[in-house]
Specification:
Length: 777
């Protein structure tokens, strides 16, 4: 059966995908797959029966997982007895920890706002394991994605069988009883204590890297450094991967043999140690894959020495075992990357790699294979790739594998054995880590090396997979001149076709992005004829004590707006229009300027710009971006749309909201009004100047405040549709009931209820849709 486990794994995976993703497409794909096995692999009736049985088995286990993957809790309970199952996470003044509800046998996420700095230190250094605690608090559901391509926290937690959040009223450790630890709990306690031991005894840079490479914990990493590693495509090195596990196990096996232990003893020893190691390092998908593969190989050596397990069989069996017990793991990006890259390297190892004997060329080929195999997954989840990643991997893989990994183990054991690590070792590692971090920061800033394509749809994913398959087929057949030209052409198409697709897309859109209590509207013309962003939302930051500040505070521009734009494949903003200087309209602008190419910034021609306006102007000057101050009468157009500035008057000196840029636009056959936070007095000035003003779609002023969208303006403009950008359960009570009454004759779309709102058009007609697919007025 050597090699057949690969085909069995495909059947198993199809059974899971049929249930969890798309029923009919994957069912049809399974039928085609069975035909191909019969026609081209000459599978016998017995072999086909095995494949069908595996498909049905995994289909049924996945179906059971889907049916049972829901909460049994209502919102009524307020007191729970829980046992903690995971490490705590303390970020600023927020504690988060997963626990098991003893009564309902259901995992819960506990959140607690820490009251003081001393309480924070106590919680950070307290081992939560081995305790059953009584907790009181309010149950709530995790937040959902409200914009296309946004991270869905509810789905993420549901894939980990967590459906409810408890907002704890008090310290979760206040009422606890100690219980006897299980072996699993003891291993988790050891991991917790080891991570905190690193934090106490090593400088922060060494402690962070050690925790990541030794115990699979990246919580101590500086978020900016982590982002640099992600941008350059080497963040996988900060996770414990198959390479790390293999090197460590190989080193342990070699040392055991060298000190005189038998091979049989070392195999038995590793079979016991491997499961412990998986838990000790956080049991990430890459760790479980590597540990399971090595475990299976050692098990075969232990019981059936005459039987040889091929690497392709080992990884296929690993996949089947993993997915059988946790079907939802197929949605995990770490799982997808780990198995796709491993399969690509294993399948290519017997044909491609032997052709490249030199170490450098071999490393380049492995990096290229890994990058090509990971490409569709990276684009789907992160919307961009880095061309610098191959070079960065060539430089950093040896550094991590042969310097950081063994060196940090040595430092850790020296510290444990002697209670102190020689300063010369600490200084050497500090210099190497600092140099590596500075270099990766410079590489991450090479914007020309980033390719942003947007999230590929199902059709584009099929094209990606087809092109990748043909590249590997031609490569394995041998790169003679004609085949080499075909591979180069296919590679060019692989990296450009979606960009061309985005540029050639004949539909345009106007989307009000859900940025909470703020404004941000994207106008994207057909064929890339013009991309305009009106306002950027923003997070109002309040002064807090240092200990309360999270490592990476939420910021709308970086965390909502930029991912939304990148998810659509938008790399250039032709005009960034900032209607006025309030933080909830312009606070995200700096993130947009940093991550995307902005060709021009438009601001109101007011006499007294805000402090934030001045910061944006200074940043624009550094980047060579022109800033245009506009007033009544300014206008521009493209092939599909026309924009006219109604207000403010030049050098406006009044209140900031009243000086908002008000735009009348014709887009997709409709007349639109975008007025920022323009107040009723400003609206009345506009209808006096433009008495024939008629509007199809009104962007309600000031998030539905009663100071905007006045009755006179509504009666004159007669909008048929109103958009309101408003934060869910905002403290201002927006939208005001008086505004809703004034707009009672219109169809109201509001971001707090509907999420992102989109008008998609072709030439002069289009349709409205909401991300949450419901309309409430």
């Amino acid at each position: 059966m050597n090699g057949n486990y690969f085909y069995f794994a495909i059947a198993s995976l199809l059974g899971v995908l049929t249930v969890i993703l798309y029923h009919l497409p994957f069912l049809l794909l399974t039928i085609i797959y069975l035909y191909l096995l019969y026609k081209y692999k000459k599978y016998s009736t017995r072999q086909l029966a095995i494949v069908i049985c595996l498909f049905i088995t995994f289909f049924l286990t996945s179906l059971h997982a889907v049916i049972t993957n829901k909460t049994s809790l209502s919102d009524s309970p307020t007191t729970f007895a829980v046992e903690f199952t995971e490490n705590t996470k303390v970020d600023g003044d927020l504690l988060q920890v997963t626990a098991l509800d003893i009564k309902h046998k259901e995992k819960l996420l506990i959140r607690y706002k820490i009251k003081s700095e001393s309480e924070k230190e106590t919680i950070k250094n307290t081992n939560f394991y081995g305790r059953i605690c009584h907790i009181s608090g309010q149950l709530s559901e995790p937040s959902i994605a409200k914009n296309p391509n946004a991270f869905d926290y509810r789905n993420y937690l549901a894939s980990k069988q967590v459906f409810k959040i408890i907002e704890s009223a008090g310290n979760p450790l206040r009422r606890c009883a100690v219980v006897k630890s299980t072996p699993l709990t003891m291993i988790k306690e050891l991991r917790f204590n080891s991570i905190h031991y690193l934090e106490r005894h090593f400088p922060s840079e060494i402690a962070a890297l050690s925790a990541a490479l030794l115990f699979g914990d990246r919580s101590m990493f500086d978020p900016e450094v982590l982002m640099d590693y992600q941008k350059t495509g080497i963040v996988h090195l900060l996770a414990i991967s198959g390479l790390h596990v293999s090197l460590l196990i190989g080193m342990v096996f070699y040392l055991g043999i060298r000190i005189g232990l038998t091979r049989q003893f070392m195999i038995n020893f590793l079979l016991v140690v491997l499961p412990i190691y998986a838990v000790l390092t956080g049991a990430s998908p890459s760790v479980i894959r590597a540990v399971l593969m090595i475990f299976l190989v050692l098990l075969i050596l232990r019981w059936k020495r005459q039987l040889k397990m091929l690497p392709i069989d080992a990884i296929s069996l690993t996949l089947m075992i993993y997915v059988f017990f946790t079907p939802f793991i197929i949605l995990d990006v770490g799982f997808q990357l780990s198995f796709s890259v491993s399969y690509a390297i294993i399948l290519s190892s017997s044909i491609l790699l032997p052709r490249y004997q030199q170490m450098i060329s071999s490393m380049i080929v492995i990096s290229v294979i890994a990058q090509i195999a990971a490409l569709p997954i990276l684009l789907y989840h992160f919307f961009e790739i880095s061309f610098i990643s191959i070079a960065a991997n060539l430089l950093y893989i040896p550094l991590f594998s042969f310097v950081f990994m063994p060196g940090l183990y040595v430092l850790f054991f020296i510290q444990i054995a002697f209670g102190n690590t020689p300063s010369i070792f600490i200084n050497v590692f500090m210099k190497i880590i600092s140099l590596a971090n500075r270099l990766i920061a410079q590489l991450a800033d090479l914007s020309f090396a980033q390719l942003i394509t947007g999230r590929p749809n199902f059709f584009n994913l099929v094209i990606y997979l087809t092109i990748i398959l043909f590249i590997f087929i031609l490569w394995e057949a041998g790169l003679q001149q004609k085949r080499e030209q075909k591979v180069v052409l296919l590679a060019f198409v692989l990296f450009t076709f979606q960009t061309v697709w985005n540029w050639a897309y004949p539909f345009g859109e106007v989307t009000m992005i859900d940025v909470g209590q703020g404004d941000s509207i994207l106008i994207h013309s057909p064929f890339g004829d013009g991309t305009y962003l009106i306002d950027t939302g923003g997070t109002i930051q309040f002064e807090e004590e240092e200990w309360k500040k999270p490592a990476k505070p939420f910021e709308v521009g970086r965390d909502v707006l930029v991912p939304f734009l990148k998810g659509k494949g938008i790399t250039n903003i032709d005009k960034l229009i900032l209607t006025h200087g309030d933080a909830d309209h312009t606070g995200g602008a700096l993130a947009v300027l940093k991550e995307l190419k902005v060709k021009e910034i438009i601001m109101p021609a007011v006499a007294d710009p805000s402090t934030l306006d001045v910061q944006i102007i200074q940043e624009a000057y550094k980047r060579g971006i022109p800033v245009i101050k506009v007033a009544e009468g300014s206008q521009w157009k493209n092939k599909h749309s026309f924009f006219y500035i109604l207000s403010p008057e030049k050098n406006y000196q009044g209140e900031r909201n009243a000086g908002s840029i008000a735009i009348m636009a014709n887009i997709g056959g409709l007349n639109w009004f975008f007025g920022g936070d323009l107040d009723q007095a400003g609206e009345e000035r506009n209808i006096k100047k433009y008495p024939n003003l008629k509007i199809d779609v009104l962007k309600a002023g000031h998030h539905g405040s009663k100071t905007s969208s006045g009755e006179a303006f509504i009666n004159t403009a007669k909008p048929t549709i109103a958009w309101i950008s408003v934060g869910e359960r905002n403290r201002y009570g927006h939208p005001h009931h008086e505004v809703l009454e004034r707009l009672s004759d219109t169809t109201i779309y509001r971001t707090d209820r509907h999420g992102a709102i989109t008008y998609r058009f072709y030439q002069k007609s289009g349709t409205f849709s909401t991300f949450l697919h419901k309309i409430k007025q």
